[in-house]
Amino acid sequence: QVQLVESGGGLVQTGGSLSLSCEASGSIFSINAMGWYRQAPGKQRELVAAITRGLSTNYADSAKGRFTISRDNAKNTVYLQMNSLKPEDTAVYYCRAEIATPSGPRYRYLEVWGQGTLVTVSS
Residues 92-112: pLDDT tens digits? Predict the structure, then answer.
């Protein structure tokens, strides 16, 4: 069994910064892509940023220039540094990872989600 545990959400004023982290734990063979998604009230969950094991990154247009995703493969952890936050960034932020976990003599890939952490940006 594998799980993702997020931390770092909270309340911040417009223009402020927050840093999120997400650590994977459990029976892990390897982790491919990791990413951050968010879901605002009444809206669909959307990609914020993603990063491959080789550290290639992809950002939503709304995150470009303000957010930075990074990861530490040795710690099975992905980070999201958020700067110049706006009220429209208010959402529950979820971590997602593609994790290879041992299954008998081989392994299988799982799509794993964290429990979410609330980010609130006040105007």
Answer: 999 999 999 998 889 999 999
